[in-house]
Design goal:
The complex is a heterodimer of chains A (about 400) and B (about 325). Chain A is of the alpha/beta class and about 400 residues long. Chain A contains 13 helices and seven strands. Helices cover about 35% and strands about 10% of the residues of chain A. Chain A has a five-stranded parallel sheet with strand order 1-2-3-7-6, sandwiched between helices. Chain A has a two-stranded antiparallel ribbon with strand order 4-5. Chain B has about 325 residues and is an alpha/beta fold. Chain B has two domains: about 5-200, Thiamin diphosphate (ThDP)-binding fold, Pyr/PP domains (Rossmann fold), CATH 3.40.50; about 215-335, 3-Layer(aba) Sandwich (Rossmann fold), CATH 3.40.50.920. In chain B, the strands form two sheets. Chain B has a seven-stranded mixed sheet with strand order 2-1-3-4-6-5-10, with helices on both faces. In chain B, helix 1 (about 5-20) runs parallel beside helix 7, helix 3 (about 60-75) packs parallel to helix 4 (about 90-100) and helix 9 (about 255-265) packs across helix 10 (about 280-295). Classes of the chains: A alpha/beta (about 400), B alpha/beta (about 325).
């Protein structure tokens, strides 16, 4: 008898370029149906939250269910402005890269709600360990756009002295840990920072950030083990934007139902949330942050969103996914959804929105003009070549002094 | 003055550092309740509590990564990797993160961590308990790499490393934990209680990073050594009758090039010895530096004696280990060249 032959399995996305976008494999539950357990609920009593999607805004832009109501009218309007600012900032910097003013850029298109809403749930002193697609933490935290641009341009006022790739910001004051550029490494560091806060009997909490693709890294596992073991006051965020460069999320997710479900084996409360719903993101972030601060330990949150733009300025998504896929994404656009909600509430209008777009753009342009007056990557003011040798150590050791002398600087 | 083993001296360093600074925390595999497989952290949890000294999961990237996060918060973690051979899962965190955080953030964040690990062979540990991976760290900008060779230095260097504002890789030659070892494995072990460098002051003192020391003054040649090889070199000098000046480098990065060049310019000959494998090893760097700084003073090519470019074998340990006989041959050749 013929032996049964083994078959090798490689998952594939539903559709490739040329096909019709199809998200029927992404079940979208109705808004408002997910329960909101008290923050001290045991993880085993809320396992279903790892499989659904917590949504607040319904299809008509109205807030429904137990997760609604975490934000005031003013905060909602501010949130819309933050998302619009991030989008305008991205568009200008994307263009600046195309104009040769910097080497590289990474935009947030379609994911603006995740980092901007999360930031509003944090307190001063809390610390993020972000990836390269959470600049909304800085925008919503009030970090000066011109300083971000100085970093992107590696100009004479670049706070990082030209040493880091564009968008790899760092600011202790604004609770934004230095972005590595390596993936997943910062996840366990967030847990370590949170452990330190607990060791010192402090009140501050940490937030780790990772993408769907890099949850496959072993550092994700390290972070989950340490967070679980020491019940660290940390919120572990997974931004599932469906694509890791050209690799669809199924390659990292494997046979698991959801990324959030990975937390269940560690007995870490694991929530899945509509990442394009500013209200839902804020409500879930607030819940997890309160839980951490009240010493109930870590929470894992999966934000279900879609990377509507390219991975970076070095990427062309039309080579691996249908061009119209972003339009077909069932959770819509975060800016449009919050705008619709504000219009429903009578707080906003089409005219007001157009006006706000112009105001936001003029703010971004003013920052850009100021940043460019201090140089861009290939023109104008630059960091010194001496800065290459400074800051490797607190005190420059003899061998670096020799090398700097040889370099003639 | 009390005489301590190198294990006790290392423990005393952590005890002193933890006593002086509440921000010093110690953790690693088997480090907490049990006190470490080599006993370096014995008693620290009882003395300072579970929040200052605790057991970690078997996850080296987690141990290093958590320490980096703690250091960003403001603590000064001194972590133990159970054997240097196990550090590789944590290597990415050391190379891509710890070593570069100060630089890439322009000092916005720093990483004052110490990564302690037992290194080297001589205990029949086979390929998973005998490696000397120092060159994997000396090659990385932003790290300091220390190899101690005796209890007095171990305590002073470790305190200095914990107080240092940058990440320090602290390698402890495990064959030296209980006594100096010159490679004569068939002779009785000399305990540290019978060696003057086993004298370790109570309380706080430092041995500065970046300073070498001359262990045996001599005029015929210079031997550059660190860790266990310091004793191998001293034995080889006695056994060959060659009046070698033996330098214990103590810190590989930053390196004390001044002490090295002064000695080689005086002796005109140099042999470099380490236990680690040869190709790409730290000896290559030392030979180059000596050649650059002392070429016109050299009477002979600079030689290197190292472990072979093979994994560390088990049963053939004493053929692999660069003992005084192998070093002695290279010394004689260097004298005759």
């Amino acid at each position: 008898m013929e032996p049964s032959r083994l078959k090798f399995h490689v998952p594939e996305p539903e559709v490739r370029p040329g096909g019709t976008p199809d998200f029927s494999n992404v079940p979208i539950p109705k808004a408002g149906i997910a329960p909101r357990p008290p923050v001290d609920t045991k993880p085993e009593d809320m396992r279903e939250l790892a499989y659904g999607i917590i949504r607040v805004l319904d299809d008509d832009g109205n807030p429904v269910g137990p997760w609604a109501g975490s934000l005031s009218d003013e905060e909602l309007a501010e949130g819309l402005r933050h998302m619009m600012t991030l989008r305008a900032f991205d568009a200008r910097m994307q263009m600046a890269q195309r104009q040769g003013k910097t080497s590289f850029y990474m935009q947030h298109l379609g994911e603006e709600a995740v980092s901007t809403a999360f930031r509003k749930a944090l307190e001063p002193g809390d610390m993020n360990f972000p990836t390269y697609r959470q600049a909304g933490l800085l925008i919503a935290g009030g970090y000066p756009m011109v300083t971000m641009m100085n970093q992107i341009y590696s100009n004479e006022l670049d706070p990082l002295k030209g040493r880091q790739l564009p968008v790899m910001y760092a600011s202790k004051e604004y609770g934004f840990f230095s972005i590595s550029g390596n993936l997943a490494t910062q996840y366990i560091q967030a847990v370590g920072w949170a452990m330190a806060s607990a060791i010192k009997g402090d009140t501050r909490i940490a937030a780790g950030w990772i993408g769907d693709g890099s949850t496959a890294e072993s550092d994700f596992h390290s972070a989950m083990v340490f967070a679980s073991t020491y019940r660290a006051p940390v919120v572990l965020n997974i931004v599932n934007n469906q694509w890791a460069i050209s690799t669809f999320q199924g390659i990292a997710r494997g046979g698991a139902a959801t990324f959030a479900a990975r937390g269940l084996g560690f007995n870490i409360p694991s929530l899945r949330v509509d990442g394009n719903d500013y209200l839902a993101v804020h409500a879930v972030a607030k819940w997890a942050i309160e839980r951490a601060r009240k010493n109930f330990g870590p929470t894992l949150i999966e934000y279900v969103t879609y990377r509507a733009g390219a991975h970076s300025t070095s990427d062309d998504p039309s080579a691996y996914r249908p061009k119209t896929e972003a339009v077909a994404w069932p959770l819509g656009d975060p800016v449009m959804r919050l705008k619709e909600h504000l219009i429903n509430k009578g707080l906003w209008s089409e005219e007001r929105h157009k006006q706000a777009e112009a105001e936001v753009l003029s703010g971004v342009l003013a920052a850009q003009k100021e940043a460019e007056s201090h140089g861009t990557l290939h023109a104008g003011g630059k960091p010194s070549v001496r800065d290459v040798f400074e800051g490797v150590y607190a005190e420059m050791p003899p061998h670096l002094r020799r090398q700097r002398q040889q370099a003639g600087v | 003055m009390p005489r301590l083993t190198m294990i006790e001296a290392i423990r005393s360093a952590m005890d002193v550092a933890m006593g002086r600074d509440d921000d010093v925390v110690v953790f690693g595999e088997d480090v907490g309740y049990f006190g470490g497989v080599f006993r370096c952290t014995a008693g620290l949890q009882q003395k300072y509590g579970k929040s200052r000294c605790f057991d970690a999961p078997i996850n080296e990237s987690g141990i290093v990564g958590a320490a980096i996060g703690m250091a960003a918060y403001g603590l000064k973690p001194c972590i133990e990797i159970q054997f240097a051979d196990y550090v590789y899962p944590g290597y990415d965190q050391i190379v891509s993160e710890a070593a570069r955080i100060r630089y890439r953030s322009n000092g916005e964040f720093t990483c004052p961590i110490v990564v302690r690990m037992p290194t080297g062979g001589g205990i029949f540990g086979g390929q998973t308990h005998s490696q000397s991976p120092e060159a994997l760290f000396t090659h990385v900008s932003g790290l300091k790499t220390v190899v101690c060779s005796n209890p007095y230095d171990a305590k002073g260097l470790l305190i200095a490393a914990i107080e240092d504002p940058d990440p320090v890789i602290f390698l402890e030659p495990k064959r030296l934990y209980n006594g100096p070892f010159d490679g004569h494995h068939d002779r009785p072990v000399t305990p540290w209680s019978k060696h003057e460098l086993g004298e370790v002051p109570d309380g706080h003192y430092t041995v500065p990073l970046g300073k070498a020391v001359i262990r045996r003054p001599g005029n015929d040649m210079t031997i550059l050594a660190y860790g266990t090889m310091v004793y191998v070199a001293q034995a080889a000098a006695e056994e060959t009758g060659i009046d070698a000046e033996v330098i214990d480098l103590r810190t590989l990065v930053p390196l004390d090039l001044e002490t090295i060049t002064a000695s080689v310019k005086k002796t005109g000959r140099c042999v470099v010895v380490h236990e680690a494998t040869q190709t790409g090893g730290f000896a290559g760097e030392l030979v180059t530096l000596v050649q650059e700084a002392c070429f016109f003073h050299l009477e002979a090519p600079v030689a290197r004696v190292t472990g072979y470019d093979t994994p560390y074998p088990h049963a053939q340990e004493w053929s692999y280990f660069p003992g005084p006989a192998r070093l002695g041959r290279a010394m004689r050749e260097t004298m005759e060249a």
